């Protein structure tokens, strides 16, 4: 068992909890590593643990009978895996696959449900998160059906930025194709378009967002809509827009000088 003191603020759902209830909850956590491509839970499998990521990303993936896969949601430091337990359902509806390696705080399902019964502040906050997650899953479904690949790719890269809390991260075109439910050539064309406009740099899976505000304009409205939904229920998810604009100007200048 690891001490929670240094990392209590790393997961946003846990950061606002205070007092004795917080201490009792944190005493039961254990810190675990999230390894890229690891399947934490399969579809229709019983949920054994809940996870509160601190610096990794977990993708929620739906698989069809023909083998095709589509990402319907993702969880980073802003959320948790195993939220159906809040509703009393102990079975996973999707595959949970680690997209980006990192760490998470883990709690056994039975212990988590006991804390939900005893900790009113935790239950209220996670009820809000459940509302946000359900709304975002519905929005992702509509986005996949109605919006162009370029706009959806821009949205997904912005989500990655928020979840890793940085403008540089690694994601392959193959993984992006699975996440967006399109052929790899579609991801290639969309990424090249964003790169040619100076919004991103993308080389061998290494992504650098050069101009976040411009990338937001290239994204569909679903990115802002999902963030607004989270903010109304749980508080700000990302940095103020004026700070991102200042940082984007600096990055684009540095990128031009390096090339």
UniProtKB/TrEMBL annotation:
Keywords: DNA-binding, Transcription, Transcription regulation. One of its GO terms (molecular function) is DNA binding. Residues 236-259 are annotated as: Disordered. It comes from the Bacteria. Residues 13-126 form the Cyclic nucleotide-binding domain. The keyword Transcription applies. GO terms for cellular component: cytosol. Residues 147-213 form the HTH crp-type domain. InterPro entries: cNMP-bd_dom, cNMP-bd_dom_sf, Env_Response_Regulators, HTH_CRP, RmlC-like_jellyroll, WH-like_DNA-bd_sf, WH_DNA-bd_sf. Gene3D superfamilies: Jelly Rolls (2.60.120.10), Winged helix-like DNA-binding domain superfamily/Winged helix DNA-binding domain (1.10.10.10). Signal peptide: none annotated. This is Crp/Fnr family transcriptional regulator. The lineage of its organism: Bacteria, Pseudomonadati, Pseudomonadota, Gammaproteobacteria, Steroidobacterales.
């Amino acid at each position: 068992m690891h001490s929670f003191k240094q990392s209590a603020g790393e997961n946003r759902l846990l950061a606002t909890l205070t007092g004795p209830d917080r201490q009792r909850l944190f005493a039961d956590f254990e810190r675990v590593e999230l390894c890229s491509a690891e399947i934490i839970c399969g579809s229709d499998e019983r949920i054994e643990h809940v996870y509160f990521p601190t610096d990794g990303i977990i993708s929620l993936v739906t698989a069809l009978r023909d083998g095709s896969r589509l990402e319907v949601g993702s969880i980073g430091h802003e959320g948790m895996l195993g939220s159906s337990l809040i509703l009393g359902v102990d079975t996973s509806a999707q595959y949970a696959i680690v997209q980006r390696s990192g760490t998470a705080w883990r709690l056994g399902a039975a212990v988590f449900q006991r804390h939900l019964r005893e900790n009113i502040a935790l239950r209220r906050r996670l009820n809000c998160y459940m509302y946000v997650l359900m709304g975002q899953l519905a929005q992702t479904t509509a986005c996949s059906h109605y919006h162009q690949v370029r706009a959806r790719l821009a949205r997904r890269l912005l989500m990655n930025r928020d979840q890793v809390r940085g403008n540089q991260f690694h994601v392959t075109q193959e993984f992006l194709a699975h996440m967006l439910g399109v052929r790899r050539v579609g991801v290639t064309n969309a990424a090249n378009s964003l790169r040619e406009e100076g919004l991103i740099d993308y080389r061998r899976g290494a992504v650098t967002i050069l101009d976040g505000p411009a990338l937001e304009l290239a994204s569909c409205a679903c990115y802002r809509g999902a963030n607004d939904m989270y903010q109304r229920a749980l508080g700000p998810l990302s940095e103020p827009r004026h700070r991102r604009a200042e940082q984007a100007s600096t990055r684009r200048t540095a990128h031009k000088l390096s090339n």
